[in-house]
Amino acid sequence: MGRATRSSILLLCLVVVCGGNLYQDLSITWGDGRAKIIGAGNLLTLSLDKFSGSGFQSKNEYLFGKIDMQMKLIPGNSAGTVTAYYWSSEGDGRDEIDMEFLGNLSGDPYTLHTNIYAQGKGDREQQFHLWFDPTADFHTYSILWNPSHIVISVDGIPVREFRNMESKGIPYPKNRPMRIYSSLWNADQWATRGGLVKTDWSRAPFVASYRSFKADACVWAAGRPAPCSISAANSARFSQKLDPPSLQRLKWVQRNYMIYNYCTDAKRFPYGLPPECSIS
Ligand SMILES: *[C@@H]1O[C@H](CO)[C@@H](O)[C@H](O)[C@H]1NC(C)=O
């Protein structure tokens, strides 16, 4: 076990696996009725119109774990819209793990935009097209965050891994709990083809749907702490690296579906690529 893993055993939290009732796990945070949990709590919808977007967050904060959510993105012409789904800490110099889905004209591919912030420092964008139509059906989007690495996956296929490289002086999020957030908003200044394609408000409201929130994660239980069984090192959520088949799949995605990688954008970093880019 690495230094990071050992020290985190000292942190206090509680492991939960939950799923099913969205009323229990999520709170609507904004949008004046545009975000809704429906029926018995198995479906949540966010909507966006000319006046406002909407959003929700997880009730719990977590320190490490894996959260899966099924999402079905805005069908048809979604150009100009962004559906963001991310982990974030609070306060200054925040940690954040982002998935943002940038809409497009009907028939043109959605872009999955990702970024990772540690102690306020981001600029680690990677973008992907998907190998399926994310508006036709629900698919599972997951973010694993543990002391060793962060893995963003789609339908169980890893699209991005960010390893803990603290030993090489690269900050890694590990001290502050994070919450899950999601929001749907208008970003037609930049989202689609760099802002060339604007939101067509005659198509509003735009609706994205969510179901099957599953947190296999350590709840940060401020005030009522319980030791988190993070020492269960063989459990997948605390795995220290991708197994060979997962690594193969990651390579497949990166080879065939990655459309932007900050690590190869030499123009953007005239004084040299970020240090993590040269660590394999
Ligand atoms: C939209 O479609 C165009 C054309 O296929 C593609 O280049 C672009 O990456 C797509 N996504 C966004 C968000 O612009």
From TrEMBL:
What is its EC class? transferase
Q: How is it modified after translation?
A: Contains at least one intrachain disulfide bond essential for its enzymatic activity.
User: Record's PROSITE patterns?
Assistant: GH16_2
Alphabetic keyword roster: Apoplast, Cell wall, Cell wall biogenesis/degradation, Disulfide bond, Glycosidase, Hydrolase, Secreted, Signal, Transferase
Which compartments is it annotated to reside in? Secreted, Cell wall; Secreted, Extracellular space, Apoplast
Which residues are the active-site ones? 96, 100
Which Gene3D superfamilies does the UniProt entry name for this protein? 2.60.120.200
CDD domains with a match to the protein in the record: GH16_XET
| A GO MF label | hydrolase activity, hydrolyzing O-glycosyl compounds
Q: Which residues form the GH16 domain?
A: 16-210
Glycan-linked positions: 104
**So which domain of life are we looking at?**
Eukaryota
Q: Does the keyword Signal apply?
A: yes
Q: Which InterPro entries match?
A: Beta-glucanase-like, Beta-glucanase/XTH, Beta_glucanase, ConA-like_dom_sf, XET_C, XTH
Q: Which SUPFAM superfamilies match?
A: Concanavalin A-like lectins/glucanases
Q: Name one Pfam family in it.
A: XET_C
**Does the record carry Disulfide bond as a key word?**
yes
One GO location term (cellular component) = apoplast
Q: What is its EC number?
A: 2.4.1.207
Q: Name one GO biological process term.
A: cell wall organization
Q: What does this protein do?
A: Catalyzes xyloglucan endohydrolysis (XEH) and/or endotransglycosylation (XET). Cleaves and religates xyloglucan polymers, an essential constituent of the primary cell wall, and thereby participates in cell wall construction of growing tissues.
The UniProt family comment states: Belongs to the glycosyl hydrolase 16 family.
Q: Which PANTHER family match?
A: XYLOGLUCAN ENDOTRANSGLUCOSYLASE/HYDROLASE PROTEIN 8-RELATED
Annotated protein name in UniProt: Xyloglucan endotransglucosylase/hydrolase
